[in-house]
Amino acid sequence: MDRQTSAQRFAAKVNPRGPLALIRGVLGPCYLWTGAQSQKGYGAFWDGRTVRAHRYAYEQARGPIPAGLDVDHRCRRRACVRPSHLRAITHRENILASSNHVARRAAVTHCPAGHPYDDANTYRARNGTRKCRACKNAAQRAARAAIRERHLAPIAHIRPRTATPERQAA
């Protein structure tokens, strides 16, 4: 009984007739992983230890994954193991390429009032979100003006002056 190689076992768990990628520039159908999958939908493959199937496919086709880089699915399908749909990019690029809330917020270039999020006009709040310095300054100016108006407002008399018969006679 001949023992199968890792590559043969891997190939037996790939369906090359997957759906077409809906992302522009990603050619050909996805090669879907039919083996075990994680709860998040990534393929899992045993190669002496459990590895992600897309990482194994990338390493077999292109060599080791460069240090500090993630393997990204250009087709946006986590179960895809087609080497032409995989690329090694930084974690930041991987996050920004997705459609999650982090990517949507990072794609915003101006605050709701229209001021640009650039180095001179942006600061980080304690929770890590970007804030517009111009809007913050305008809000502080408005708050200080409101306080100033309260302090300078005319004081109303406690009792309104009314004409009494004694005062009218005098």
Q: Please, could you describe this protein's structure?
A:
- By secondary structure, this protein is of the alpha+beta class.
- Helix content is 32%, strand content 15%.
- The strands form four sheets. Strands 1-2 form a two-stranded antiparallel sheet. A two-stranded antiparallel sheet has the order 3-4.
- Strand 3 (44-46) and strand 4 form a beta hairpin.
- The radius of gyration is 32 Å and the shape is rod-shaped.
N-to-C SSE string, H for helix and E for strand = HEEEEHEEHHEEHH
Provide the residue-averaged pLDDT: 90
Number of helices: 6
Query: Largest sheet, if any?
Result: 2 strands, antiparallel
Which structural class fits the helix and strand makeup? alpha+beta
Tell me the strand percentage band: 15-25%
Strand order of the largest sheet: 1-2
Roughly how many Å is the radius of gyration?
A: 32 Å
Distance between the termini: 128 Å
Helix content: 25-40%
**General form:** rod-shaped
Low-confidence stretches: none
Number of strands: 8
What topology does this entry show?
Layout: H1 6-11, E1 14-15, E2 32-33, E3 44-46, E4 50-52, H2 53-62, E5 69-73, E6 86-90, H3 91-97, H4 101-106, E7 122-124, E8 130-132, H5 133-152, H6 165-169
